[in-house]
Amino acid sequence: MSGLIPLSAVVGEALDEIAKRSKKTIYQNDYLAWASDVLGRRYYERMAGIMDEVAHSRTGKTRTAVKSANGTGKSYSLSDFGTWWVTAFPPEESLAIFTANGRDQIERVVFKYLKDNYGYMKTHGYNPPGQINESLEWKYEKLDGSGKEAIAFGKRPADQDIVSSFQGTRKPRTMVGLDEMGGLPEDLLTAAEAVTTGGETCLFGIGNPDRRGTLFHRLWTNKTYAADWNLHTISAYDLPTMTGEDVYPNDPVRQEAMLSSGMTTRRWVEHKERAWQDDDAYGVPQPNALFKSKVLGIFPDEGDTTFFPENYVTAAQENQIDPQGGGIGGVDLGFAGEDESVFTVNDAGHCRVFDKQIAYRDDSGEVAGKTTGSWGKAETIDSARRIHAIAHYCGLSEVRVDASGAGVGVFNELNSLREFRDKEYTLIGIRGGTASSDRNQWAKARDEHHSSLKEQLRQGALDIDPDDSKLRDELLIITYKMNDRGAVVITPKKELKNEFGGSPDRLDSLIYATVGLNTLLKKEPEDLETGQRIMFDAYEFTGNSFEGAGLPI
Q1: Which residues contact 181 (CB under 8 A, 6 or more apart)?
Q2: Which terminal residue of the chain has fewer beta carbons within 10 Å of its beta carbon, N or C?
C-alpha cells in the first residue's frame, strides 16, 4: 500500500537512535574516547591525564589550573574541552564561556580551534548543533522555536566591568575556560566563580608561569587559596618531541602532523639549554628565569628578575604605623584604556589609597559628585576637583600629580583656576625627561625612584594596605635588568602594560607619595613655600612612551 513506511526501516531508525544515545552516554563518561572518535584527537600521556581529570572531576574538585611550558598544546586542548562540553551533552543545558587576556587571543586562537573542531565534526559524520559566528558566539536554534541561544561565547570585558560581566549567563552545566590564565586579573576569576555555582560546573585555566605576584602564581604558593583546585605542570620535557612517545602508533601521518603542528621541538629546547642557562660561581649552568617559565613550566625564582623582594612587600603589609594626620598625596592619572586614577596618601609612612567617599564641588560651590581615591575615565576638571577635595579633606601638605601626557591639563587647572586658589598644599607636577642623580647606579630617574621605594620597604619605613591585592601584585610583577654601565633599568611601563594588562597605577601613586622631595628636586624641602607651583620632569620616571602630536615636551 503506497505511503506506508516498511517496518524494517522504522526498526532500523529506532536502532540507530538507540545506538547514538548509547554512544553519547559513553562519550559523556569518557572524554578521551570522545576526543578520539569525534575529533580524531589523541593526547600525549601528560596532557591526556589532565584532560581526563578536568572532564570527570575524579578528585571531586571542579577547578583545574595548568601551568605549562611553551608549545604544549594548551589552547587547543582548552578548545577541545569546550567543544565536548557543549556537543556531548544537551545544548539547552550546556554553556561554555571562554576568556583570555585579550579579545585577539580569544578570536585568533580559542575560537579558531573551535571552528576547526566544528568543521571536522561536520565532515566526519557528526552533527554539531548550531553555528559559530564572527562575534565569538556559538548559537543553536532552540527546540521550542523561540529563537537562537548561545552554547558558547568568548569575552574579555573591560576591567571596570569584569565582576558583573558574566551575570545571567549560566546554565545547569556551565564551564569557564581561562586561556593564558597567567595574565588575567583577579576580578575575572570572581566573575567566573559567579556563574559556576550549579551542580555540574567547571573552571579550567591554563597558561605560562611568566609572572609572580598574580592570582595564577598564588595558586602555587598559597595552600589555602589552592585547596579547591587541581594543579598541574607541563614541562617541555613531557612532550613527545622529547620523550619519543608514539601518540598515534597506528597512524604515522597523524603522528608526524602532531609533532610538526607547532609543538615545541627538541632543537628549540636544546638551543634554550645553551642560551637560557647561566653559569654559577663554579661554572655549572643554571636555568635562568626564561628557561624556567618557557621550558620547565615553573615560575621564576624571586631573585631572577623581581625588583621588589616578596619578603619586603609582605613585611610592609604586616607593618603597623599610626597615622598622624596630614601627610603627602601622590596621584597617578589614568586617561586611556582600562587605567584608573589613583590617589595615595602617605601619612608618616602609613600609605593607603584614599578610601572614604566625599563630595567634591564645581566652580560655583555646588556639589558636583562624590569620589574616593580611585576613579575611572574623567574630564580633566573633574579629576582636578576630586584631587583638590581629597587634599583638603586630609589636610595634606603636598600633592604630587602626574603631569605627563594628558595629565598636564589636570596640573594646569589645579595650578591656575580660581576655584582652586584656596589650596593649602604645595602642588608638585611630575613630568618626564630627567636623568638620575647617578647614572652608574640608575639609568634614569624612574629607576632611581623605584630604588627609593625599595629602600624604604627594606628599612621597614612604610605600612601598606594588607588588603590591597592589586598593589601587591603590581609590586611583585616589576622586573629589572642591568645596562652596560651596570646601572638598574626597571622594565619599561609600555612593556608592563602589555604583560600586566594595564598600567601599575597604584604602584606609581605610591612612588609619587613616598619618594623624597629633595631627590625629586635636588633641593631641600624647607626651601619651598606652601602653595608654590613646582614642576618636576619625570618623563622617564613614569616610563610613558612619547606618541602622537599634542603631548607636552
Answers
A1: 65, 205, 206, 207, 216
A2: N
